[in-house]
Amino acid sequence: MLQTRSVHTPATRRDGLRILVARFRGRGLPADRYDVWMPSLGPSERLLRSFLDGKTDWRSFAKRYREQLFAPASIDGENKTIKNHGQKSTLRLLKHLSEVGNVTLLCHCHEDVKQCHRHLLEAALRSKSLAVGFVVLARRAGRAELAWIASGLFAAGVLYPLMGWSTHGVGGMPVEWGGVALFGILAGLGVAVSAWFLMLGWGLHAFWDLLLPWVADTAYVPPWYAAACLGFDLVVAAAMAVRAWRGAPDLAGPAGAH
């Protein structure tokens, strides 16, 4: 089980592995408040200070923090095949640990503070678990697997205009509706022509999560949503890529041919 708490809240037996994910350990903080300190999972010092000083708003902070989690390091230039992709492997480990036991992400913010990066980190980790469940259910659907994956892709495109409907209206989101059309087309091609279009669609939707705040007014989107959606998209796209690489017959040609 995965949860978040303030590092200043007394520990309980249900906390399990307590991980301090703050950039700074905190002067005078007793060592028994946490089991391990992972500053690499906190925002950069520059970003943190900019947010605390009021120079960066929460939405911009959340976007930049998500980018930092997966930002490539200089060492990736020496790896042609398997790259680190920022904290990707670390997040994978935390996700696994939370599935086999309790994991608590800690920060210095008080319990009732909503604008804390630990909530963004939790959302990113939970999205991966949901994506794995989605892929497993799709596999169990048998011949309807591709239709399941395609429906999910179309739904992912529709969610943005649905969230902004009340504040922007139908005609106030041309970019979002363009995304609905794009992912709807890719979903249809994935079922009617080749499942490779579905893999492409989920990969593009991950890029869409990062691009949309730059080209449209997405104030209606909760800060945690983009992180969760990005993780979900990448897991589904990766799962389909692995199946294709292994030569799964239903990814080799038109969906109706299997």
> Mind describing the biggest β-sheet?
4 strands, parallel
Number of domains: 2
C-alpha end-to-end distance: 38 Å
Query: Helicity level, as a percent range?
Result: 55-70%
What do the pLDDT scores average to?
84
- Helix and strand content put the structural class at alpha/beta
Looking at the structure, what is the overall shape?
globular
Flag low-confidence runs.
252-258
Count of alpha/pi helices:
8
- Succession of helices and strands: EEEHHHEHHHHH
Strand order of the largest sheet: 1-4-2-3
Radius of gyration, taken over Cα atoms and rounded to an integer in Å: 20 Å
Measured by DSSP, the beta-strand proportion falls in 5-15%
- How many extended strands? 4
